[in-house]
Amino acid sequence: IILLFACQGTSSLDVNDGDTDEPEGPQFSFALDEVHSIELELSEAGHDALIEDPYEYTPADVTIDGFEYEDVGLRLKGMWGSFIPIDSDDSYWGNGVPNKSAFIVKFDAFVEDQRHQGMEKLTINNMIQDVSRIHEYTGYSLFREGGVAAPRVTYSKVALNGAEKGLYLIVEPEDSDVFLDEWYGTNKGTLYEGVYGVDLYEWTVWEYDQDNGKDKSKEDLMELAELLDQYFDGNASYDDVLEEVDMDQYL
Asked: Whole-prediction pTM value?
């Protein structure tokens, strides 16, 4: 489970309450009327780099539905239960497909402003913990219908250096401008990603990953942690919390 904090510098955050620029050109389709095709091409050096440091972007050539891009950032993703090393030959955890790694492609990692149909990044989930292949689609769809910020998803066949890896789920990254504009009316605020097993306290603030925002001080996250600690200790009221937290969105 990923815990997201979107701190936009306001006391309460109204979803979809901001002016955003309409995206230009064709936009990537998250509809279910087609299965996308993604071909990943890694050099031998790039393959070795992902063995050495799977979470560091390495250059790759990527073809999506016939659109070709060079020098796209490619890295592996996943943690306990979903991470598959790129050099693994175990097909049991890949739904019958050997080394079915999960990926993130970042189009502008090495080429400034490179995009694919409005997307600067795509998450490619291997679904190895989901035999039905519909859990994430169903869950995210329910959240979105309920007005809770959640990504769009679609499906794609994936190949790595010509080897077919089967069916994957394409997930809209929560730190993309498109996602933030849709749900928060701006993409200029700070966005934090929770860390496995780490709750929010003053001494854990620096363990949180910051996925968006120019201000790297984490002062807003620290202020929230301090306020919650003060409330827990009886030094702040519930009304004090409401001044800083959009309780409707939290609930």
From this structure: 0.82
